[in-house]
Amino acid sequence: MARWNVHFLFLMLSILGIHLQETYLCNGALNSSCNPVERSALLEFKQGLKDTTNRLSSWTGEYCCTWEGVACSSRTGHVIELDLRNPHPFDNEWILGGELNPSLLSLKYLKHLDLSRNNFGGANIPNFMGSFYHLQYLNLSGTGLGGLLPRQLGNLSNLQYLDLYNEFGSNFGAQVREFRIDDALWISGLSSLRLLNIDHVNLQNVSNWLQALNTLPSIEEIHLSFCYIEPVPLSLPHVNFTSVAFLDLSYNSIGSSIPTWLFNISGLQYLDLSWNNLHGHIPSLFGNLASLNNLNLAHNSLIKGGIPTSLRNLCQLQSLKLSGINISMDLSEFGALFSGCIKTSLEILELYRTNLIGQLPECLGELKRLRSLDLSENQISGSIPASLGQLVSLEELYLDDNQLNGTIPESVGCLSELVNLALGSNFFVGEMSEAHFTKLTKLKYLSLSSNSLALKFEPNWLPPFQLRSIWMSSCILGPDFPGWLQKQENMVFLDMSNVGIVDAMPDWFWSLISGAWHVDISSNQISGRVHNLMHLKKLREFDISSNNFSGLLPYFPRGLEVLDVHNNLFSGPILPAIIMGMPNLNYLSLSRNNFTGTIPSPLCHLQELVALDLSNNLLAGKLPDCWNRSSRLTVFDLSRNSIFGGIPKSICSLSLLNSLHLSNNNLSGEFPLSLKYCRRLVILDVGYNELKGEIPTWLGRSLISLRVLGLRSNKLVGNIPPNLSLLSNVQILDLAGNELSGTIPRSFGNFDAMKVIRKIPSSLTYAFESAYKESMPVSTKGNTQEYDELLSLLNIMDLSNNNLIGKIPTELMNLSGLFGLDLSGNHLTGEIPENISALQQLESLDLSRNNLSGGIPSSMAHMSSLGFLNLSYNNLSGEIPLGDQLLTFSDPSIYMGNLDLCGFPLNRSCKGSETSQTPSRINGKNENEMIWFYVSFALGFPTGFWAIWWALLLKKNWKICYFRFIDNTFDKVYVCIMMNLRKFAL
């Protein structure tokens, strides 16, 4: 036995020595020199590549097995792996390009090929890719390849890993094309496949993709997100691919109920069906998928009903995402859901925007392993239960956009793992102190905006956390600037707008935001000067509007995209160098300050600028005439300055211009012909200037998108062009305060937009990429008021203070959605149209200071929306109609200057009428009528009373019946009262 052990030991040592020798030879001589044919093939392949950073500089000499990305077999020396994936996928300097040379076919023993995250210029995958019969791993994701996938790939029967993920824009510099499949039958040839990733590959109109996948016996992981998949079979005769553990079908258009064949894949661990327009209920069959640890049905708004209680038995379930589903359940039902073993496994619960109602249950505190809880954008009411502080593993808590109220419990401060805390947009009240943050050492994102919370900390409090993002808008942090912020050294996002700070800006604040990209401290009363901020290199959005900052406008960082300093006390000129230093500006608002000087011409060259607001300043000089077509400018607001000269011709080179505000300046000259080419204009406001000449006839034909036309208080003359009525979208037409003559065009009854009643505010212009909010002054109800959000709801026609003659066109009564009509201060004649009551939405009507005659139409008493009326200084006559709406106008001045008008509220009786024209006329009855009413009542009552008693006295039968009825009624009432009294006694 001992000899046998010695021989066996010698044999093992011999085999080990041979193996070591073979390994040395393979790794040394064989592996380093590699096969000459394969080396030549690699060099030929390299010649077809574009390698700007010389990544393949090691591809020289005889030893190709040591080249970058090349690996050889330790036994045969053949090249078995070529890995040229981009090591820096978000840096296009490292991208390989060029062509895929068929010389690679000489690598006959290739098992692993990875060309991902490069850029091959949008070429198709070459057919020869299907000839690597030993290939086990193929990754062509993000390569810039595209087109129809070659069916030859189905020849790769040994392939275990196939990744063709090709998201648009996933690779910097890549000329991305879409991959397509016209027939999925070739997939069934991949009999060894274990992982398939064809996210973003177009499978539209491919009906056999599911059948092809169902033939793959070894498939474990399937990625089919963003594949344009339309309705799938709800059932299969037999499910073969039972080894699947991971299935992602998100972001498709399945549009049916949840397919039942899914519940036959018993080993399924990950299932994502989000964003698929699924409908119906969540099947209780999910309870059969015992291995499931991740279920995502989010954003299928047509799914309705509650969460099946069968899910409580999924003891492996770690992630449940049902956001965007119409669950519509009361949170009191959560107790049943979490009574099973799911409460010991669940780590992620996302139910935002699911129409949840009720109060947060105490049982939430039992989900000890929960790491993320998202119940935002629901209708949850009540307070936060103190038991929430027991979720010791919680990292993310989202309860924002609900109806929660009360105070925030101090137990929140016990969540030591918490990173994200979002409680904004609720109805929380009270104070938050140090106790709420005691153990929150890992907190990085804090959202408390839009509550009535006051953050009260000791002056020397040192926070235990380092925040990256703070949302505290409309909370109370002031009046002093919060000193605890000084220690937050990693700030990226800061929103402290409208927090009640009345203090000078501390110097340390500019160091606090040194790494921030968004800063909003607007709507406070912070004072001081803003120093040059060019060192804030990461800053992209900066809003310090509605404060008390003063001094000169500073220099800002070059990368800034949004700058809003409106409503401050800045003064001095806007230096051209400051504008030139911000080439990426998207939104610029310097309005409501005291800036002087001229408008800097470099504004013309900000190609990314969408909205420019310089209104309400002291700017003078002429408008720059350097605008060009390449600009993205959509909103241009220079109103309320001292700009003079004409409107420059280049203004309509701005091909995207929607909104042009130039009112309240000193602009002169005729209405510029260049505006004819601003075809996308929605708002044109050039009121309160010195423009002269006639309103051009081309305006109605060219600016067909106009919704607001403001030409008020200029020196325009001539007739109003009838074809202005071609502006079918116009809601506000303001031609007041000019010297226009002629009649009101009858075609003005054709403004289609003025026939529409709007209930919901909408955006007038299309500057969606900017923070600009449209606003402008509108004259109605006898005064001028600034409208912003409600501007889109108004329908107003103002032709007042001109020299218009003729009658009021009856066609104007077709404008059934009209809110305000002002024709005052003209020379209009004739009568007020009898059908004026058709304007049922009219709230303001001013026809004063004209030559109108005749009576006031009685139908005006039924204009129930009318809140302002002025008919003074006309030649109206007759009795003022009474009743309904006109009785609410008790001010006689609205009728003054009409000598032949009589009746309430004027102290002037109507001739030929015995009625008194005083407010004592109530509901159309005068005093005489009331006197006769009371006299008749006084005579009628005793007459009727004695007539009945005389009949009873003279008719014996009537008398007997009457008293018998009285006795019976009395008995019934007496019995009822006594029975009820007895009940109360018991």
From TrEMBL:
Gene Ontology, cellular component aspect: plasma membrane
Keyword vocabulary terms for this entry: Cell membrane, Glycoprotein, Leucine-rich repeat, Membrane, Receptor, Repeat, Signal, Transmembrane, Transmembrane helix
Domain Leucine-rich repeat-containing N-terminal plant-type positions: 38-73
Predominant localisation class: membrane
InterPro entries referenced in this protein's UniProt entry, alphabetically: Leu-rich_rpt (IPR001611), Leu-rich_rpt_typical-subtyp (IPR003591), LRR_N_plant-typ (IPR013210), LRR_R13L4/SHOC2-like (IPR055414), RLP23-like (IPR046956)
Annotated signal sequence range: 1-20
Domain Disease resistance R13L4/SHOC-2-like LRR: 310-496
Family to which this protein belongs: Belongs to the RLP family.
Protein's name according to its UniProt entry: Leucine-rich repeat-containing N-terminal plant-type domain-containing protein
Organism ancestry: Eukaryota, Viridiplantae, Streptophyta, Embryophyta, Tracheophyta
